[in-house]
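Subgroup meeting minutes
Present: P.N., E.W., G.H.
Scribe: E.W.

1. P.N. recapped why we're keeping a running log of single-chain structure predictions: easier to compare across weeks, and new members can see raw inputs and outputs side by side.
2. G.H. added today's entry (146 aa).
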Amino acid sequence: MEIILKQDIAKLGSKDDIVTVKDGYARNYLIPKKMAIIATESAKKVNAENIRQRAHKEAKLKEAATQLAEKLQSVKISIGAKTSSSGKIFGSVTNIMLAEAINAQGFEIDRKQITVGDVKEIGSHSAQIKLHRDVVVDFAFEVVAE
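Output recorded in log:
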């Protein structure tokens, strides 16, 4: 079934995307929760017009995200964590810890924008920050022992 998304849904698509999903997922979850509508011909025309009108605003947002990405690549972040004598971290470094460290530097990044792998040792690591649907930054940070 073809549907038009009304909001960003992780691993499915962004707002106003036309995607194909299974009928049950659309009818039992996405449509009742007002996350999507059925992609009829008239709905597709309305969606195309909305996209055309929003294109200028999107360009400004993308430009701002690109500028922020350039600034973020020059920032050095170090996160302190309790470690064992062998260098293993008790627990792990999460996207919440990264968001707090980045926001302390003067940026406004939501924790949901950050994707970090499994970080359980001290040293240099990287994470991805999704600033815009087209702008994703690889961000390097360092984990140090407290």
